[in-house]
């Protein structure tokens, strides 16, 4: 009746695809900003916007992951409590 909880592990191909996609999108956006026909202040403003967007995206992803893992841990603790109560309960006593 015991279930083993396995951690989800991403494949190497998925990790490579994610990093390549990130590097490609950041590079394309940076090149697009560099070649815009505007002055340096506008390019700087757009570059800062890209950097802040990337930073906030990493922070959001980490927060969502941490909340999900905390919920999984809470569910496992609750499941262990219920299992303990069920094993200690004898209907004929």
TrEMBL record:
The chain crosses the membrane at residues 12-36, 42-61. Keywords: Membrane, Transmembrane, Transmembrane helix. Pfam families: YiaAB (PF05360). Residues 14-66 form the YiaAB two helix domain. The keyword Transmembrane applies. Coiled coil: none annotated. The keyword Lipid metabolism does not apply. InterPro entries: YiaA-like, YiaAB. Signal peptide: none annotated. This is YiaA/YiaB family inner membrane protein. It comes from Floridaenema aerugineum BLCC-F46.
């Amino acid at each position: 009746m015991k279930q083993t909880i396995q951690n989800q592990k991403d494949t190497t191909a998925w990790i490579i695809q994610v990093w390549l996609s990130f590097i490609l999108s950041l590079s394309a956006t940076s090149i697009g900003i560099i070649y815009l026909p505007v002055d340096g202040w506008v390019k700087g403003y757009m570059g800062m916007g890209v950097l802040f967007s990337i930073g906030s995206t990493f922070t959001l992803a980490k927060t969502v992951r941490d909340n999900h893992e905390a919920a999984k841990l809470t569910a496992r603790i609750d499941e262990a409590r219920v299992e303990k109560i069920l094993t200690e309960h004898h209907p004929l006593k």
